[in-house]
Specification:
87% helix, 0% strand, membrane, transmembrane helix
Length: 441
């Protein structure tokens, strides 16, 4: 009985003894070496996981920017621009009377096809679902009204103008606002993803700095505990950590610089150029509709003046063209914009003559100046303006994609490299501590 009581009394002391032994071990040099080795190995694992995942996430952001956000933003632009141009082209075709020119008809059909194709591309996204629904449901109604106006116009029925006016009202009241909402949403998404991809990963840099500091601290401790000036394993681990730190800092800096260039030389300019194209085709639609309604187009003329002033002001140095010219960093873009400004100024001069002729009762002359095939007609000058804006847009988009690709390339080997570096840190640190630990056997 006494033996049972003695064993029972000894049981609570067992954990206390283990704690004392463990505390004594931790306070001893071998115990501290084991703790340092374990800590450095765990740190290496954390470094490998955090930095490699961080680089993977950054690479995904950069690739998504180039392969998803930017193309979808362009698709939204195409929807808005194609719908605007379809409205302007339908009005131009109506002015021709009877059977419209084949080229005008083909342009209208191409605009509708482009808008439909871009709308299909947007259908898989969750951006502005209400706008997508409006576009999908109202576009067939619009094309139906245009076809009715076209059929009546070919037979010489005046009611065709009413149908065309109704179609244009639908375009301006529902289709274009929905397309603008979609474009703004996609452009905001592009900006947001640019900001995310450009942000510098301070957390990863701080973690690598901490790793370097702890490796130095471990070597300093060993120097005092063992009087060994150099520990080969810890030195190799430290060098690997420094390489990882410098490589990560350099790669992330390169990504930031490339994406800043992509924004400056690409997307910032594209945003203004797109708005310039919108304003130009809006002015063209207003100009032709003013003639279509014959005497009842004062509201369209007012809208034309607003769009033309927004496009380039009085001399082309103001408005969106002037802003785009100031932002241009590529000589090719500057040349295209100089040509666009010349075309815009010539177009405004022709427009004034169109209004003078129409107001003086010379309707046929006004129509010919608007839709004629001569180099000095309003339609030709508008086409020249748009061609130069497209050229500038293509150059700016190419610059964006080039810089985005360069940013992605800067990260190509970094993720596997950081994994290898983390393994080297862990193995080398453990081996270095093991060499000192063996001396206490």
């Amino acid at each position: 009985m006494a033996g049972v009581i003695t064993r029972a009394a000894a049981l609570p002391r067992a954990p206390i003894r283990l704690w004392r032994v463990a505390r004594k071990l931790v306070r001893s040099t071998p115990g501290r070496l084991v703790g340092i080795a374990a800590g450095l190995v765990v740190l290496a694992i954390v470094v490998g996981i955090v930095t490699s995942n961080g680089v993977q996430a950054k690479g995904d952001d950069v690739r998504d920017l180039a392969t998803s956000a930017e193309p979808l933003s362009v698709a939204a632009q195409d929807i808005y621009r194609a719908l605007q141009d379809a409205d302007a082209t339908a009005s131009s075709a109506f002015l021709a009377g009877g059977i419209e020119p084949a080229a005008t008809r083909q342009q209208y059909l191409a605009d509708i096809a482009q808008a439909t194709s871009a709308l299909t591309l947007q259908a898989g996204t969750e951006i502005a679902p209400g706008a997508l629904e409006t576009l999908s449901s109202q576009l067939p109604i619009y094309t139906g009204l245009v076809e009715t106006a076209r059929a009546n116009n070919r037979q010489g029925f005046p009611v065709g103008a009413a149908y065309l006016r109704e179609a244009s009202s639908l375009m301006r009241a529902k289709l274009l606002p929905a397309a603008e909402q979609l474009y703004k949403a996609e452009n905001a998404r592009l900006t947001q993803e640019q900001d995310a991809a450009t942000s510098f990963p301070l957390g990863q840099i701080v973690l690598l700095l901490i790793t370097v500091g702890l490796l130095f601290a471990a070597q300093w401790y060993l120097l005092g505990a063992t009087n060994r000036l150099v520990n080969t394993g810890l030195l190799v681990g430290t060098v690997a950590a420094v390489i990882g730190l410098l490589w990560t800092a350099a790669a992330m800096t390169a990504v930031t610089l490339h994406l800043d260039s992509a924004r400056r030389d690409g997307s910032d300019q594209v945003a203004v150029l797109v708005q310039a194209r919108f304003a130009a085709v809006q002015a063209r639609a207003d100009e032709t509709l003013t003639l279509v309604v014959r005497g009842n187009g004062q509201s369209y003329q007012t809208d034309y003046l607003t769009a033309a002033n927004r496009l380039g002001g009085r001399d082309g140095s103001e408005g969106l063209l002037g802003q785009a010219r100031q932002l241009a960093t590529d000589p090719t873009v500057r040349t295209s914009l100089d040509n666009a400004i010349k075309a815009q100024q010539a177009w405004m001069s022709v427009h004034r003559r169109i209004r003078e002729a129409d107001d003086a009762g010379q309707y046929n002359q006004a129509v010919q100046s608007s839709i004629g095939a001569s180099a000095g007609s309003s339609g030709t000058l508008f086409a020249d303006l748009d061609k130069n804006l497209v050229s500038a847009l293509d150059t700016a988009r190419t610059a964006f994609n080039s810089q985005a690709s360069a940013a992605d390339a800067a990260l190509t080997l970094l993720r596997p490299g950081l994994i290898v570096i983390a393994v080297v840190i862990g193995v080398a640190s453990g081996w270095g501590i093991w060499q000192r630990f063996r001396e206490y056997w």
